[in-house]
Design goal:
The chain has about 550 residues and is of the alpha/beta class. It is about 40% helix and about 15% strand. The protein contains 22 helices and 15 strands. It has an 8-stranded parallel β-sheet. Strand 9, helix 12 and strand 10 form a beta-alpha-beta unit. Helix 5 packs parallel to helix 6 and helix 18 runs antiparallel to helix 19. It starts with 6 loop residues before the first helix and ends with a helix. The model has no long low-confidence stretch (mean pLDDT about 95).
Length: about 550
């Protein structure tokens, strides 16, 4: 089977991968957070959107093969297998412990060695630089046996210092192995420093092109780009493909990000609650393209894409549910091919159940309908349609609306709840202050019910209100006029991210106080906190450390 994880659910799974990996590493007191985190999106997309595999049957003959050649990323790899269901995530706490099967480098699964090998692991990655050769062996054997199983191999950039990698790189095109896809985790750091200092690799792209590989270069933390690259690779004939995934070592924890120190070092166990809060604090900025100048949606999408927006918020208005009209499914369908940034469709239409197929076929990644336009039966109908299409489902509530009782029985399937912070229908309205406490109350009650989805704040979000809604629990922030009424869209998006980051750092300092580790935390995070010290009011404190 191939998992077809919905966009927002996939984001949550990748968070779980990082959380389980860092908990295991802290518990073991050793391990490699840097590499586990730089490859988290790559492994998440492979296991939850690409590979044919079966966690209940690790040796299924029809499975695709995933070879993790960068063995030191084992904590992230094990966490991916555990979150996918190969074994319980509780076992992550036994990482590197005597007698545990989760050792520093993974051991290939064998039924004979059940207690010493890891279900799902295809290759015992010892010294690095060998995985590509093994992948070529499997891919070639599959061709000879006329088997349809594909082979995916994850390479570290440091390990491509090994000569064997280039022998293998020569061999794969010779055998026209189009059933082989390599992904290079290009995080630019290896054991003892930055790759370009240790053994310069650039121009990486030209090297693989010269070795006759089909080469695709992407941002290795954007799941939509990874999925797109894997789709493109599957269309290539008679040539292996390598996806150069530009990543950040340690991404997810700011003081570990792009920091060689955290190649092979474990955080203190007492810092884990803060690291988990930071990982769960990941947020998405969603520019609303109906704001600013009339229409010209293509241009706006291109601009926010350059501004590193996370998703695109599409406000669909039919002039009936709200006293305004914008665009409908046909416009979304036309816009879909111009970008692979996820589309977050906010349906402010009277009868979503009559039109849901149109929005499913338009290429939305998230479809949110208003609770005011639905009841239990209609929502159940929409849920079946949207979820069977592998699309994230959302429900929106107007300022005076509470989440309806019937919605609570669908919390496992609802990936996002939009809490309107203005009355729907127009951009540029003022944020309704009472919505902040509405969001925090809802967040609290949903957490108690085990809700794993997102809360999205929509309406009047700007550099000041973004902090309030984030603090209250929103993790997706829609911004229309705050982005498009600014001539410099990049700066507008950066400003929203900056303000959100300040709120996150403030909350982490609070948590450090609660856990009695403020000084250690500030020392560990000094280079992140210094630029924010005045906004956090901790300049003197930092200067004394
Ligand atoms: C309003 C829409 C919002 C709006 C946001 O009905 O749902 O998404 O476009 O625009 P601003 O951020 O300007 O309030
Ligand atoms: Zn909206």
């Amino acid at each position: 089977m191939i998992f077809h994880m919905r966009y927002l659910d996939l984001k949550r799974k990748i968070q779980e991968i990082r959380i389980n990996a860092i908990e295991g590493i802290a518990e073991a007191g050793s391990g490699h957070p840097g590499a586990s985190f730089s490859a988290a999106e790559i492994m998440g997309v492979l296991y939850f959107r690409r590979l044919r595999h079966d966690p209940t049957n690790p040796i299924w003959t029809e499975r695709d093969y995933f070879i993790n050649s960068k063995g030191h990323s084992a904590p992230g790899y094990y966490a991916t297998l555990a979150v996918a269901g190969y074994f319980s995530t509780f076992e992550m706490k036994s990482l590197r412990k005597f007698g545990s099967r989760l050792q520093g480098h993974p051991v290939r699964y064998s039924k004979l060695l059940q207690h010493h090998s890891v279900p799902g692991v295809e290759y015992s990655a010892g010294s690095e630089g060998i995985g590509l050769s093994v992948s070529i062996g499997i891919a070639l054997a599959n061709v000879i046996d006329n088997k349809k199983n594909n082979v995916y191999v994850l390479l570290g950039d440091g390990e491509t210092n090994e000569g064997q990698v280039w022998e293998a790189a020569m061999a794969a095109p010779k055998y026209k192995l189009d059933n082989l896809v390599a992904v290079l985790d290009r995080n630019k750091i290896q054991q003892d420093g930055f790759t370009e200092d240790v053994m310069p690799l650039d121009p990486v792209r030209d090297k693989w092109v010269a070795f006759n590989w089909n080469v695709i270069e992407i941002n290795g933390h954007k799941v939509e780009q990874i999925m797109d690259a894997l789709n493109k690779a599957s269309e290539i004939k008679d040539k292996p493909t390598i996806i150069i995934a530009n990543t950040i070592k340690g991404r997810g924890i700011k003081h570990m990000a792009n920091n060689p120190q955290w190649h092979g070092k474990a955080p203190q166990n007492k810092q884990i609650p803060l690291l988990i809060e930071e990982l769960k604090g990941e947020y998405l900025i969603a520019p609303s393209i109906i704001a600013g100048e009339k229409e010209n949606y293509e241009d706006k999408i291109k601009k926010v894409e350059r501004g590193d927006a996370d998703i695109i918020h599409l406000d669909v208005m039919d002039g009936k549910f709200v006293p305004n009209t914008t665009f409908l499914a046909d416009t979304i369908k036309k816009l879909r091919p111009i970008t692979n940034i996820p589309f977050d469709a906010h349906l402010m239409i009277e009868k979503p159940y009559d039109h849901i197929e149109e929005y499913i076929n338009a290429g939305c990644d998230i479809i949110t309908i208003h609770a005011e336009t639905c009841d239990n039966d209609k929502f159940r109908y929409i849920r079946e349609k949207v979820m069977s299409a592998g699309i994230s489902l959302g429900i929106a509530i107007n300022p005076e609306t509470e989440l309806p009782e019937w919605a609570f029985s669908y919390l496992d399937d609802i990936d996002v709840i939009i809490v309107m912070s203005v009355n729907p229908g127009f951009t540029g309205q003022k944020f309704i202050p009472e919505i902040t406490s509405k969001i925090s109350n809802l967040n609290r009650s949903l957490k108690l019910k085990g809700y794993k989805g997102y809360i999205e704040a929509d309406g009047g979000i700007d550099a000041s209100t973004v902090q309030r809604v984030y603090d209250a629990g929103a993790r997706i922030m829609v911004a229309g006029s705050a982005v498009f009424s600014n001539s410099d869209i990049n700066t507008a998006i950066l400003q929203l991210k900056h303000k959100t980051n300040v709120t996150l750092e403030r909350n982490l300092l609070k948590k450090a106080d609660e856990n009695g580790i403020r000084k250690d935390w500030i020392i560990a995070r000094k280079h992140i906190l210094i630029p924010l010290a005045s906004e956090l009011g901790i300049e003197d404190e930092i200067n004394q450390l």
